[in-house]
Amino acid sequence: MARPREFDEHAVLDAAVHRFWVHGYEATSVRELAQSMGITGASLYNAFGDKRSLFRKALAHYVAQSFGDRVSRFEHLPPKDAITSFFQEIVERSISDKDRKGCLLVNSALEVAPHDPEFQETIAGVLVQVEAFFRRCVLAGQRSGEISDQQSADDIARTLLSMLLGIRVLARARPERELLDGLLRPVYALLNKPR
């Protein structure tokens, strides 16, 4: 009979996310992960498999906690408010991040995805979901007349996605409110109906 786990899976995944987020995938050893998670190496392997399997699970956990949570909170807002609230939260998180960790998904896109087809596909899939959120908001706003239809919803959604990625990368080196807000002003202008 298998023994029940003697740890809170949510808490140890949070610890694994933090370790990968601060140090990256390559620079994080299984020993360091187990230590950060407060479990033994054997427990880590028994519960999660190898480092790669744990990273896969940690990344999914991170996406659910960050993007999934954000979408569930903002998607019910009026379309333009959903988009601006999404970005305002990203700017606040970027500015208040004393460790300048950025975004685990974006960091992984830069570190792991170029060399690993499985993670490239996983990360690309999440970015497609982000783009789809923006597209849903833009389409709803265009239908209601709240958002300009001068550009296609697809093009605006892609522009919003690129701005999100740019902010998350730029903020690691320059987490400055005026800089980040200044990047967003022209993007928000795309949403406005012409006068």
TrEMBL record:
The keyword Repressor applies. The lineage of its organism: Bacteria, Pseudomonadati, Pseudomonadota, Betaproteobacteria, Burkholderiales. Residues 29-48 bind DNA. This is TetR family transcriptional regulator. GO terms for molecular function: DNA binding. It holds the Pfam family TetR_C_13. Residues 6-66 form the HTH tetR-type domain. The keyword Transcription regulation applies. Keywords: DNA-binding, Repressor, Transcription, Transcription regulation.
